Amino acid sequence: MKQPIKIIGIGDDGQAGLLPLYRSWIMESELLVGGERHLAFFPDYTGEKRVVKGGLSALVESLAEESRATVILASGDPLFYGIGGYLAKKLPVEIYPALSSIQLAFARMGEAWQDAYVTSVHGRSMQGLAQRIDGRDKVALLTDAENNPAAIAAYLLKYQMTEYRAFVGENLGSPQERVGWYDLQEMAERTFSELNVVVLRRQQAGPVWPLGIPDESFAQRKPDKGLITKQEVRVLSLAQLQLTPESVVWDIGTCTGSVAIEAARIAREGAVYAIEKNADDLENCRENMARFRTDFTLVHGKAPDGLEQFPDPNAVFIGGSGGELAELIRICCDRLKSGGRIVVNAATVETLYQAMQAFAASGHETKVTLVQLSRSKPILSMTRFEGLNPVYIVTAYQKAGEESSQ
User: Fold this and answer.
1) What is the DSSP pairing of strand 391-398 with strand 341-346?
2) Phi, psi of 305 (to 5 degrees)
3) I need a surface site. Which of 1, 112, 198, 296 has the fewest CB within 10 A?
């Protein structure tokens, strides 16, 4: 019977940090696999060394046919944002972790880390980080050469997240180890070793925006102030979208970005994609994104053009259609994931009719809520009410028992 491949975690101290048993397994193996830095820790190894480069699928194919005693070296804990989880699904393996860089960083800080939010920007975009970490007391970040501590600091400053101070651990566990605390501005101006981990510690309370951000808090187009999905309608529309923390959301005709921003704060582990044809509204949306600490994909264009670059959604909000409502709804229905919802805000009966017809043609069920709201306004020493424009909230979803082809 073929012996399982051993995946052994290793730190920046190389062989010195390994148990004697692990060292013997490595030296007695016939094939040693790992990154160039890992393999360099074993200059006297007599078997074959294989450097991991590119995708892992080719590595899996070659190892599946391998009959020799094989050891794979991985940084820290191979199951913590490492190759261990992927390889364990594809090959018979045994995993022997070392201390992760996150564990070492908190040890150097002298703080518990079971309550920390841990995420990685290693080899991936930093987009969406703002809403994922906003309001969290402790945040641990795995970094890379591009998303380094200085870049992270610049990103946080863009979103005015100045309540955070940062701890940077460089070359943790090695003779070149260096650790320290930095203000964000200081961190943005420094150069750090490529091997590092960043821990953000909130020093004071930041701003809080519960669901239903007031209309006047958003930057809006002037003198046409008011081109925004009103607070009350926005909350009702978001409720109909039934968002989860992992939802992928489209906001079509985002304007000031009010719906996209609130959606991003709910779907903070998911992703939001917004499109807007008006350049001035686009600039207001960008300002609002920074103001409310949401970082999502914003495209200048007239839907349905541009939607092909978005991933399939769990939820779609249509606040404006630019006269292409029927085609827009057809595309959204085709792309919507199973169990997803589409919400259209219609200010006229003509738009309501078009939406109902288009959803029926696509085989989707609909329900409609007519929202008629009034807001109080002072008059002398008294109070009167002023009505807002009525809005039809059209919610579409798949017929019971039908599954999407997506």
Assistant:
1) antiparallel
2) -60, 130
3) 1
> Quick check: 366 and 337 in contact, CB under 8 A?
no
Q: What is the DSSP letter of 58?
A: H
Tens of pLDDT along 60-118? 998 998 999 999 999 999 999 989 999 999 999 999 999 999 999 999 999 999 999 99
pTM: 0.89
Q: CB of 128 within 8 A of CB of 266?
A: no
Give how far Cα 130 sits from Cα of 82, 171, 213, Å.
24, 26, 17
| Residue 313 to residues 221, 243, 336, 339, 354, Cα–Cα distance (Å) | 28, 11, 5, 10, 22
Residues in the chain: 406
Domains of the chain: residue spans and CATH: 5-99 (3.40.1010.10), 102-202 (3.30.950.10), 215-398 (3.40.50.150)
| Cα distance between the two ends of the chain | 41
pLDDT digits (tens, 9 = 90+) for 9-37: 999 999 999 999 999 999 999 999 999 99
